[in-house]
Amino acid sequence: MWFKELETERLHLIEIGHHHAESLFEILSKDEVTKYDGMESLTIVEDARRLIDSFKSAYINKRGMRWGVILKDSGKFIGTVGLHQLSLANKRAEIGYEIHPEYWRKHFTSEAVNEVLRYCFEELRLNRIAALTFKDNIASRNLLKKFGFKEEGSLRSYLFLRDQSHDALVFSLLNTEYCQLRQQSVQESYRY
């Protein structure tokens, strides 16, 4: 399995290397980004390099994939989107994402997630994509629902961040649901 770079109308989704460490650090050192990310904010650039190494290791061991989100028009690295808990044998993964706050509410996350979902269901032939989110993360919950993810329940005290336990909400999207939503979208586009 080689790393597959992806493309959307406005974005390149690329393999993350050490040359992206400064940009990744700039994003993940912000408390407003990591508030719901399940990890503490990074404090030194070396932490970003270690994180990039963990992305590479997960990919080599077929346990995950993480793409850097790059704006086509400027080449700016604005975040990441990717899969963890990947199990090709069980045809499932979990999706996660983070974008620099300067690019929030501009639909870049939706655009990147949409392409990763397409890749997962149409090319990797996965059957289930899950997502975990903090209960208070309304933006992420709304994004998942927009793509047809169903809320399955909560995991009590599942996440520990900033000296406090937090419940996590579990969402999932199945391949059959994804295909049905894609078909509806195509049919609606023909109406106009």
Mean pLDDT score: 92
Distance between the termini: 40 Å
Shape: globular
Q: Can you list the strand order of the major beta sheet?
A: 1-2-3-4-5-6-8-7
The share of residues in extended strands comes to 25-35%
The count of β-strands is: 8
Q: Report the order of strands and helices.
A: EEHHHEEEHEHEEH
Let me know the largest β-sheet: 8 strands, mixed
Helix content: 25-40%
Q: What structural category do the secondary elements indicate?
A: alpha+beta
Low-confidence stretches: none
Cα radius of gyration in angstroms? 16 Å
Map the helices and strands:
Elements: E1 6-7, E2 11-15, H1 21-28, H2 31-34, H3 45-60, E3 65-71, E4 77-87, E5 92-99, H4 108-123, E6 128-134, H5 138-146, E7 150-161, E8 164-174, H6 175-191
Helix pairs in contact: 1-3
What does this protein structure show overall?
- This protein is of the alpha+beta class and 192 residues long.
- 36% of the residues lie in helices and 33% in strands.
- The protein has six helices and eight strands.
- Strand 3 and strand 4 (77-87) form a beta hairpin.
- Helix 1 (21-28) packs across helix 3.
- The radius of gyration is 16 Å and the shape is globular.
